[in-house]
Design goal:
Low-confidence stretches: 1-19, 49-100
Number of strands: 12
Oligomer: single chain
Shape: globular
Enzyme class: hydrolase
Keywords: ATP-binding, Helicase, Hydrolase, Nucleotide-binding
Structural class: alpha/beta
EC number: 3.6.4.13
Number of helices: 9
Mean pLDDT: 76
Largest sheet: 6 strands, parallel
Distance between the termini: 88 Å
GO molecular function: ATP binding; hydrolase activity; nucleic acid binding; RNA helicase activity
Order of helices and strands: EEEEEEHHHEHEHEHEHEHHE
Helix content: 25-40%
Family: Belongs to the DEAD box helicase family.
Length: about 350
């Protein structure tokens, strides 16, 4: 039997890359391709180039440069610099907030972020943009629509978007959304919710019910600031992003289409604010939703099933919830979500709070 495979004038031992070995004279030993480059190495490392370990040659220095600014993804320990979340447990580095254009809560004050023309076009469209619907009906011409408000000492309705009772920053976003006057349901829901009362509202589709609960919730968030997240239990450590979210407002809706619509509205009216809205629903990649809430979640819009999943995973806590909204509550019950809703409201760490049921 031959000692090697030979095809024509080629042999597996014939290689221009192979150094002289211990084989027969004039014939080099075979070296696999992935090892051939090592034959020319003399054991000395090349001079260091730009990188983490060597000088970068620029004014920014390197990771070991004592003159470079300290990098801390969680911000200072006291949470005073940057847009803080949860009382300093989540903060953006360098005072830039949690994203480009986001506002901050600093020293007990709401500081709106800078305007962003691209984001404004995305959220609010351009004048007369048919894709950005404000309300289904021109309610400015329907002041005589009858509204029945029942309850004990019902607050007087509001007839304009003014401060008081609404926050100035919210009013600026309402104007960007081309809302002129409150719809009938908004006239009553704004003062009722802002007075700490429970509310159940019934109105036709396109009547502004979403704004009816978002306006008072966001207005009070801008005035009162974030709630401090509970201290981590002993033995629990967290690096970088905070893995558990502590939203202060929870909005439940039956379908992914509806929660997506509510989320889009929440993005409009939280534009340039410290409030970060998030949305979670079934039938979508849970990994991307987890990464979203890790970046901060102050107002959560969710379907009941997906929220229960995240609660079981320990990624969301309801201990800081101040407002609970059940949008299309009757439909959620018809779809069989009562066990999940009871689990969320009664079986978790949610405090006793005010509820809005549009």
């Amino acid at each position: 039997m031959a000692d090697g495979l030979q095809m024509g004038n080629l042999s597996i031992n014939d290689s221009q890359h192979a150094p002289q070995g211990n084989g027969p004279p004039g014939r080099a030993a075979y070296i696999p391709p992935h090892l051939r480059g090592r034959a020319n190495m003399d054991g000395s490392a090349p001079p260091p180039g730009p990188g983490y370990g060597g000088p970068r040659g620029g004014p920014r220095g390197n990771w070991a440069n004592a003159n470079a600014p300290d990098f801390s993804p969680r911000g200072p320990a006291n949470g005073n610099a940057g847009g803080s979340y949860g009382g300093g447990n989540y903060s953006g580095g360098g005072g830039a907030g949690r994203g480009s254009g986001d506002g901050q809560w600093r020293d007990g004050k709401h500081i709106p972020g800078p305007a962003n023309a691209r984001v404004e076009r995305e959220l609010f469209g351009v004048p007369n943009d048919p894709s950005k619907q404000q309300t289904g009906i021109n309610f400015a011409n329907y002041d005589d629509i009858p509204v029945e408000a029942s309850g004990h000492e019902v607050p007087e309705p509001v007839n304009a978007f003014t401060n008081p009772p609404l926050d100035d920053h919210l009013i600026s976003n309402i104007k960007l959304a081309s809302y002129v006057v409150p719809t009938p349901v908004q006239k009553y829901s704004i003062p009722i919710v802002m007075n700490g009362r429970d509310l159940m509202a019934c109105a036709q589709t396109g009547s502004g019910k979403t704004g009816g609960f978002l306006f008072p919730i966001l207005s009070q968030a801008y005035q009162n600031g974030p709630s401090a997240a509970p201290q981590q239990a002993s033995g629990q450590f967290s690096y970088g992003r905070q893995r558990k979210a502590y939203p202060t407002s929870l909005i439940l809706a039956p379908t992914r289409e509806l929660v997506s619509q509510i989320f889009d509205e929440a993005r409009k009216f939280s534009y340039r604010s410290w409030v970060r809205p998030c949305v979670v629903y079934g039938g979508a990649d849970i990994g991307s939703q987890l990464r979203q809430i890790e970046r901060g979640c102050d107002l959560l819009v969710a379907t009941p099933g997906r929220l229960v999943d995240l609660l079981e995973r320990g990624r969301i806590s309801l201990v800081n919830i101040k407002y609970l909204v059940l949008d299309e509550a009757d439909r959620m019950l018809d779809m069989g979500f009562e066990p999940q809703i009871r689990r969320i409201v009664e079986g978790e760490d949610m405090p006793v709070l005010r509820t809005v049921k549009p």
